[in-house]
Every structure is written in structure tokens, then in C-alpha cells.
Input
Amino acid sequence: MDLLSACSHPCWFLLTMLLGLLHWAQRRQRWDPRRCPTDLTGKTVIVTGANSACRSQERGQAAVEEIRAATGNPAVLLRLLDTSSLASVRAFAQAVLREETRLDVLVNNAGVTGLPFTVTPEGLEMTFATNYLGPFLLTNLLLDLLKASAPARVVNVSSLRHSVGTADSRYLTGQRRPGGYDAAYSSTKLMNILFSAELSRRLHGTGVTSNVLSPGVASTSIMRHFGWAMRTLFFLVRPFIKSPEQGAISTIYCAVAEEVSGITGKYFKSDCRLALPAPAGRDAALARKLWEESERLTGLGDRPQH
Output
């Protein structure tokens, strides 16, 4: 949620308005998903955090019915998942492996900000578990199915805020606090980039690609955990920023565009163009270190290697 940096500046209102105007001027995209020729018939795609309604079975199912009616596709399903809970992630992955014969695209989109510092019953910090460690575990648990379905794609959603993040593994368990909502969010998004890069390296030769993207500033419900002042500010700038549909374009591009076929280990900006992530996001040694600690925390390091 790239708006957070502007809101923390002493001149946050002016900066936020300028940021909104900039994004309004850049709303026209280079790639239009409505013109994408990719045929997804017979394909299986998982999108976490696809809609804020998905946190509720009732509201999520209503969204499913709306999508089915709009698209004529009856094969749209809702499955509840809490990425802050490793137990929930494991149960979800087991259900997928039990019910699905293939997995062509996994989009790790679920994310949160504005939560108070909280250590979960599993000993993990809530924001870092939700945005990074849960998706890390989910992806690894579904890797064999992705490989069996190759060519397949893993798409991780980051943010341009990753450039001011810190990939300190002590954040994952709350042993160290990053220093505020913005710092926590930015650090999870840097971890997403490092995870995506290391995953790409480990998937070399399997036919499964791993890419990461920034969606830009979009009018979603991500500010729901903030106080009234921040929510009011976000409401005021909404006319100048991307709609949820526009904010999803770079994610959809990485997930289905023919132009991305075979590309892996890359970072895409919100306009679907390739870019270099911040220097910390290109640190291969840091990516390996974070991966190894994440394996330990999720118990994946105890599994036999294939």
C-alpha cells in the first residue's frame, strides 16, 4: 500500500495529493487484460486475498456468485484461508492437493497493514506471517503440484515500498520490531521480493516461473485497520488513484500474459514494465539466508529433499 510513505511525511497531505495526481495521469496501461488472448479453459488458478469479502464465507460466496453471473464461468470457487496461521495454510494446501489435479497459477496477493504488533499463538508476528511467511509456506506446499502442471507460474505481490524495507528475520517472530506500520509493511514487501527471487533460482529447469510485482496505489480496503484520520485521507484521494480493477492489472499480466511466458526471477512495475528492485531486493545471499530461516520457522527444513 504505497500511500503509507506519503502519509508519514510532515507534508503528507500535499504529497499524497501530488502522488494521487501522478497516478491519475498514469492510469492508462500499456497492457489491457480484456484483450489478452490467453485461454484458461481447463486451467486452475489460486488467488489469495482475491477480495476483502473473502474473509467471510457469506460475503465471499456472494462475490463468487456475482463473478459467475458476470463471466458465465461456474468454476469459480471460494476457499477460506488465513495466511497468518500456518495451521490454516497447511489445511488449505491439503484440501487443494486432495481436490485439484493441477495448479497452473498461484497468486500470493493477500496482504495487510495497520495491525498492532501481535505475536500469534504459533510464535509469529501477525503482519509478517500474513504478508510473507504464510505465502512462503503455501507456495512450498503446492510446489509439487505446480511442477506437475508445468508450465506454471507463481506470482508474488510486493510494493514499491520494498525499497525502504529491511529483511531482518527477527521481525518474523517479533524478537525485533521494525518501528511502525509503514516499516513493517515495507519490510514484508522486501521479503516478498527476496522470496520470489530465491524461489526462481530453486525452480530452474522445472517449467515453473516465479515473478514479483508492484500493483501501485489502488483504492482497496487495505486501510481498514487505520484510524479515522488516515481513512478519511484515503477517501479524499480515491478519485485520483487507481480503481481496484486498474490496480490488479500488473498482477493479471504476470499471471496470464503470453509476453511473460518463460520469464522468471523478475520484478514488474505497476505499468507492467520490467524494472530492477531496490539493491536489497537483489541481494542473493540475503535471499538465501531469509529462505533458510523461513524454512526453519515453518518446519519445511525438516522435510526430505527431492
Notes: The mean pLDDT is 86. The longest helix spans residues 181-202. The CA atoms of residues 129 and 159 lie 17 Å apart. The two ends are 37 Å apart (CA to CA).
